[in-house]
């Protein structure tokens, strides 16, 4: 080969490749612009682009650098290696699915992405590898009403109104005046008596209770002025409230409210001990702060006796209720967040909370406390070698600290195989402050006791607000905050924020006494209003947000069962003996045994799935903050057609003769009205009953009353 040829051939090759390379690059660029970019824009930019202000999982797809850098799951694209990045796997729904909440893209589109990556992932887009993280502005978060310190502001009532009986009424009246509304007249005395019994004990008043109340309503000395009658009525109401607060039935009823929110399942015999502890705590008016501390960290508290130690351990079952092992920590944080603090902390498991000021670090700071805790329980459980000395028949599950306690890793996207940095155990920053000492530096145990004391502290702005709102809900049918488990930015704001803070402060100052709070609510004039109002008031406040009247409420599932049993005279008080293998009752609606001879206990102590479903009972798999109150045809059909209801009607008709002390029908009609409705029969009702009984039996008349709205609803 001549020297000329030696020098010209490489030059020729260079010239040829120089012509081909631009053509190839142009083709790849055109492929990206025609086949790849449109798919990214349409399906991915909403969640992974700077223009949308979102980089879920830390991933940006609107820049080449963002795709190559990737996010929490590593690089999204590795040029030349389709299988090495996460993008193609996501499109194939291999491990996780993208686009999120959309059908899988076509095979042709997926093949285009595979060819594009194999060909070097040509992408002309410039820009940063990741969107700048703004983080959570905790100072701004603390401006939300629920995260501010409790502050008492006196109500501004115009004029010298004599309607209020106390501070609660003044707060309500101040808001009514702003809205241009006036409160309703006081409820009928017998309607109020029935309301008090059901709200404080979940049971109807007996005929003897009605008769005693009727006597107490009469002013002493025969003086019958309006003022004297009002004073006698309020004195009679006060006596009823005190007696109900002191009754065993009070704790049974209010325990059921608490159990709704903690996944209590009455079919699980392993948690009967916890149920009975909650009843005792309410009946003994255990201060709410201690009620919380014992449930979160009872096993870490000192005990003066084996019996007290057992009580502490039983209380700790709160965090063990109906939680599957694989979800144990998540379930514990969910209960603490929603039931105690009224916020959804679990939304921060996979990423910073989108709406409330809770970060992933907040979540995993709490998670470390619970990963350092273990659940124990068997037929003969022991703590530190000491057997639990609970009553025979229970047995029980509880908590104890693990022998090795430690902090836990943040998990990207909440995935166990996507570990991030270790997060020191601590409390949520927006509530507990920016400069917390990690729990690992304060204690060698899990930190649950410090967590419990922090939650139950008066310095925590949520705990007192949340529980007084729950009590208000049970007494009035709607919370001051209508979303009891969500005090965050997406929940309903309080209708009466100043009243909520007054009650929270009042609870703390009373020594966290729930009975004291319930007493104040029950004796308020707001609570004792009637349910009727003038048309203008109803039109102005159809939902009764401002409480210009009382709410008409349907009895709950347990109240209906207990009312039927009380009406028949067969209701047994207290819990059944704790024997999970054989219980001393065989209660079934529609059972073959006559209702009068069947041993029966309150619905708290057993479960009737049919009645629970029919009348909106709680789902034991969920944290139920408030129940539905549906109105359906099957509910009425149950009372019209079920054989047990007919049995109870027949028993009530037979009891009426004993109650009335005579076989004559008018006194017996009056007796069944007092039995079912806690009031005497009116003259019009006596006339209607006489006409009905001329063609049918008293048992049928009783059946009609049981199916009436007055029996099913609380006025």
Give a brief rundown of this model.
This protein has 715 residues and is mainly alpha-helical. The protein is 46% helix and 5% strand.
Structure commentary:
The protein is mainly α. Helices cover 46% and strands 5% of the residues. α1 runs antiparallel to α4, α18 (463-476) packs across α19 and α22 crosses α25. The termini are far apart. Mean pLDDT is 86; it is low at 1-21, 378-384, 389-393 and 580-598.
**Strands of the largest sheet, in order across it?**
1-2
* Distinct helical segment count: 29
Give the fraction of residues assigned to helices.
Answer: 40-55%
What structural category arises from helix and sheet content? mainly alpha
> Biggest sheet, open or closed, and with what strands and sense?
2 strands, antiparallel
Layout of strands and helices, then pairs:
Elements: H1 3-43, E1 48-49, E2 54-55, H2 64-69, H3 86-91, H4 107-118, H5 138-141, H6 167-179, H7 189-201, H8 207-216, H9 226-245, H10 248-260, H11 272-283, H12 288-297, H13 306-315, H14 328-341, H15 360-371, E3 373-377, E4 382-383, E5 386-387, E6 397-401, E7 408-411, E8 419-423, H16 429-432, H17 448-455, H18 463-476, H19 497-509, H20 514-522, H21 535-540, E9 553-554, H22 557-568, E10 571-572, E11 600-601, H23 609-614, H24 633-641, H25 643-660, H26 665-677, H27 683-693, H28 698-706, H29 709-712, E12 713-714
Parallel strand pairs: 10-11
Antiparallel strand pairs: 1-2, 3-6, 4-5, 7-8, 9-12
């Amino acid at each position: 080969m001549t020297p000329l040829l030696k020098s010209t051939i490489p030059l020729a090759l260079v010239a040829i490749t120089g012509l081909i390379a631009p053509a190839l690059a142009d083709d790849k660029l055109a492929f990206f612009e025609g086949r790849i970019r449109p798919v990214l824009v349409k399906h991915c930019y909403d969640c992974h682009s700077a223009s949308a202000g979102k980089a879920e999982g830390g991933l940006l797809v609107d820049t080449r650098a963002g795709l190559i850098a990737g996010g929490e799951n590593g690089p999204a694209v590795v040029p030349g290696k389709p299988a090495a990045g996460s993008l193609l796997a996501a499109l194939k729904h291999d491990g996780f699915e993208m686009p999120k909440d959309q059908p899988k893209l076509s095979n042709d589109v997926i093949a285009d992405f595979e060819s594009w990556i194999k060909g070097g992932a040509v992408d002309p887009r410039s820009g940063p590898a990741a969107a700048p993280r703004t983080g959570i502005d905790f100072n701004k978060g603390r401006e939300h009403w629920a995260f501010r310190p409790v502050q008492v502001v006196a109500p501004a009532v115009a004029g010298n109104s004599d309607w209020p009986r106390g501070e609660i009424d003044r707060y309500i009246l101040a808001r009514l005046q702003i809205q241009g509304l006036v409160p309703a007249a006081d409820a009928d005395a017998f309607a109020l008596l029935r309301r008090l019994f059901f709200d404080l004990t979940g049971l109807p008043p007996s005929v003897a209770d009605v008769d005693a109340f009727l006597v107490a309503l009469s002013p002493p000395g025969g003086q019958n002025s309006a003022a004297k009658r009002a004073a006698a009525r309020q004195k009679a109401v006060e006596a009823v409230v005190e007696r109900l607060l002191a009754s065993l039935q009070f704790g049974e009823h209010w325990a059921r409210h608490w159990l709704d929110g903690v996944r209590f399942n009455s079919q699980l015999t392993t948690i009967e001990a916890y149920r009975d502890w909650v009843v005792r705590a309410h009946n003994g008016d255990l201060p709410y702060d201690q009620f919380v501390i014992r449930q979160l960290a009872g096993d870490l508290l000192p005990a003066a006796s084996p019996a007290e130690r057992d009580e502490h351990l039983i209380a700790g079952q709160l965090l063990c209720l109906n939680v599957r092992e694989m979800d144990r920590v998540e379930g514990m944080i969910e209960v603490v967040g929603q039931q105690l603090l009224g916020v959804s902390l679990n939304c921060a498991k996979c990423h910073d909370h989108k709406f409330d000021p809770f970060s992933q670090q907040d979540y995993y700071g709490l998670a470390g406390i619970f990963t350092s805790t273990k659940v124990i329980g068997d037929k003969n459980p022991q703590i530190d070698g000491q057997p639990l000395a609970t009553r025979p028949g229970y047995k029980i599950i509880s908590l104890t600290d693990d022998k090795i306690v430690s902090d836990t890793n943040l998990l990207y996207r909440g995935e166990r195989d996507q570990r991030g940095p270790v997060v020191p155990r601590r409390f949520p920053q927006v509530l507990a402050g920016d400069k917390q000492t990690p729990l690992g530096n304060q204690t060698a145990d899990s930190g649950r006791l410090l967590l419990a004391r922090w939650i139950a502290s008066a310095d925590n702005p949520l705990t007192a607000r949340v529980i007084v709102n729950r009590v208000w809900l049970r007494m009035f049918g709607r919370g001051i905050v209508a979303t009891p488990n969500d005090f965050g930015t997406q929940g309903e704001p309080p209708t009466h924020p100043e009243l909520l803070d007054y009650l929270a402060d009042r609870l703390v100052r009373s020594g966290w006494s729930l009975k004291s709070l319930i007493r104040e609510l029950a004796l308020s004039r707001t609570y004792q209003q009637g349910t009727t109002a003038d048309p203008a008031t109803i039109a102005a406040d159809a939902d009764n947000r401002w409480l210009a009247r009382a709410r008409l409420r349907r009895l709950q599932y347990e109240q209906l069962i207990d009312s039927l049993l009380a009406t028949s005279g067969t209701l047994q008080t207290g819990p059944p003996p704790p024997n999970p293998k054989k219980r001393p009752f065989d209660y079934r609606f529609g059972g073959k045994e006559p209702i009068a001879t069947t041993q029966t206990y309150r619905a708290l102590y057993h479960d009737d799935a049919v009645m629970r479903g029919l009348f909106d009972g709680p789902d034991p798999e969920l944290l139920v903050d408030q129940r539905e109150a549906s109105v359906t045809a099957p509910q009425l059909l149950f009372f019209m057609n079920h054989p047990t209801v007919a049995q109870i009607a027949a028993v009530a008709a037979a009891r009426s003769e004993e109650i009335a002390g005579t076989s004559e029908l008018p006194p017996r009609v009056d007796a069944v009205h007092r039995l079912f409705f806690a009031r005497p029969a009116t003259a019009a009702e006596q006339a209607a009953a006489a006409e009905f009984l001329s063609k049918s039996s008293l048992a049928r008349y009783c059946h009609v009353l049981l199916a009436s709205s007055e029996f099913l609803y609380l006025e």
